Amino acid sequence: MLVHTANALAARGVTVHLLVADRDHPFLDRCDDAVALSELETGSPVAAVRRFLEQERPAVLISAKLRDDRLAVDARDAAGVDTRVLFRVGNPLVHRLRQRTKNPIRVWYTCMQMARLYRRADGFIAVSSGIADDLVRGLGVPRERIWTLPNPTVVDSLYDESKEPVPHRWLRDDAVPVVLSIGGLRRQKNFGVLLRAFAEVRARCHVRLIILGEGRQRERLLALARRLGVAGDVDLPGWQPNPYAFMAHASVFVMSSRWEGSPNALVEAAALGVPLVASDCFSGPREILQGGRLGHLVPVNDVSALAAAIHQALESPLSPECTRLAAEPYKAESSAGAYLKALGLEPVTS
Question: Which segments constitute the Glycosyltransferase subfamily 4-like N-terminal domain (predicted)?
Fold first, then answer.
């Protein structure tokens, strides 16, 4: 997503450097020519970023991962420059920690450490209002130091790639609808609940399920599909380089997560006009679907509610025009404008 952000800002005339440890990293080939790829020198990362800041003196430095936040403020302080350091927060850090860790002492200590680090930042970019709330409630970040800015998820290449040949034989069979979901095969994505809901839908009508992604729960999910008696109508083809061709031909897109930040796949499916069903998890889906107006929201872990929503989306789908409204704030041009306004940068006009 950082590549999309860099491209969108560069397209508005902003000078953008993308600092990378390895120019051969996946997805960097999607950077536009207007984005300067700056490969950090080997050795101390802090020293490498410090030298970059001393030479280029950018107005703003955005760190996009928790592990890079300390690097950014350490380098800024070492360089002694007036560059503003903004932490871009893509996940509800405290909520996620509490989901993963039941030890209250560990939760308290980790939050204390994060809060101490976050006091050194000049501001924060939250990709959803839920993440902004998490920062305020969990880490004590003043709300006035947070900008809630949408990811530039929807780019032209999404539409181009969606028109490529249909990649799966089930998607070439219009007689049987296909439910699609995408994500790592891990606890957060809650695919066990999706499989149980799918089994209820399958008992009422002929339908198929495709889940794109890889992860350590693959065998567990396949075994569950066999126990539920739906293995013949479930496929886990793994990670796919072009999920948009799958999305474009799906009957319904489902997100069953326990938590999210701002789920990009849900926005991408909305951009392609696919009917949407999502768990009302923390955070993102309620914001994207405008409280359920632009897609179905169901309680987390509620198998029957999820099954009912999938069945309703199959039987009486919202129009593609309605669904696409959910993606409007996440178009690259809209997101770039929000970034420029928040960062106090003026777009360059010809």
Answer: 3-152
